[in-house]
Specification:
The chain has 132 residues and is an all-alpha fold. The protein folds into two domains: 4-80, 434 Repressor (Amino-terminal Domain) (Orthogonal Bundle), CATH 1.10.260.40; 102-131, no CATH class. The protein has seven helices and no strands. Helix content is 64%, strand content 0%.
């Protein structure tokens, strides 16, 4: 019978999707470690930190466990603690290079730079990109 770690190692080796999810979970746990380290350094319980930040102890617990899905809320918590959240996007080696040309990326960057520009559907966004 395989040990759990052997099974994980096999999945990491053979399943790119699993590898990506595993990597994301490790990053989430790193955020949790930072909050735990902050609490230890400042001699705070989860409840005390939560009270200082105006959130619930349960939410601190979830973040420490890597159990969160929104970056806005976690970023705000970290900001109040004197940290910043850095989101990094890099190419996925398991997927071929981007289908966008440099001209299309230029158009996309121009759209992103337009403050307050939002689209109700992806179709409208694509139409706008094509019109530039």
């Amino acid at each position: 019978m395989k040990k759990v770690q052997e099974h994980i190692n096999e999945k990491l080796k053979n399943d790119p999707g699993f590898k990506e999810r595993h990597s994301l979970m490790l990053q989430k746990l790193e955020v949790g470690k930072q909050i735990i380290g902050y609490r230890i350094k400042h001699n705070l319980t989860q409840k005390q930190l939560a009270d200082e930040l105006g959130i619930t102890q349960q939410y601190i617990s979830k973040i420490e466990e890597g159990n969160f899905s929104t970056l806005d809320a976690v970023g705000h918590v970290l900001f109040q603690m004197g940290y910043r959240l850095i989101l990094k996007v890099e190419p996925n080696k398991a997927i071929p290079e981007s289908a966008y040309t440099s001209t299309e990326w230029g158009k996309i960057e121009k759209i992103v730079a337009e403050k307050g520009k939002t689209y109700k559907t992806a179709k409208r966004a694509k139409k706008h990109i094509q019109s530039l």
